[in-house]
């Protein structure tokens, strides 16, 4: 419930976090909901896709529970910074 609430709250930030913060949010969300990266790395010209894949891949080995906890904490920090 707390994780799902954080996932909704991040959509309601009044300002957009930095690209690096957005990648961290994405990576933690994917790790929490899917687990370790399970897709091929995007092709050479897909810069955004590669950045997202690399961020998620960087979380490899993190348990889904730990990723949820980190995600909730990060969203709380972003709410104080961007709301």
Q: Name the poorly predicted regions.
A: none
Number of domain units: 1
CATH class: Mainly Alpha
The CATH architecture is Up-down Bundle
What does this structure look like?
InterPro entries: Acyl-CoA-binding_prot_CS, Acyl-CoA-binding_protein, Acyl-CoA-binding_sf, FERM/acyl-CoA-bd_prot_sf. Belongs to the ACBP family. This is ACB domain-containing protein. GO terms for molecular function: fatty-acyl-CoA binding. Residues 1-83 form the ACB domain. The structure is a single chain. With 83 residues, the protein is mainly alpha-helical. The chain has a single domain (2-82), classed as Up-down Bundle (Acyl-CoA Binding Protein). 65% of the residues lie in helices and 0% in strands. The chain contains 4 helices and no strands. α1 crosses α4 and α2 packs across α3. The chain is globular, with a radius of gyration of 13 Å.
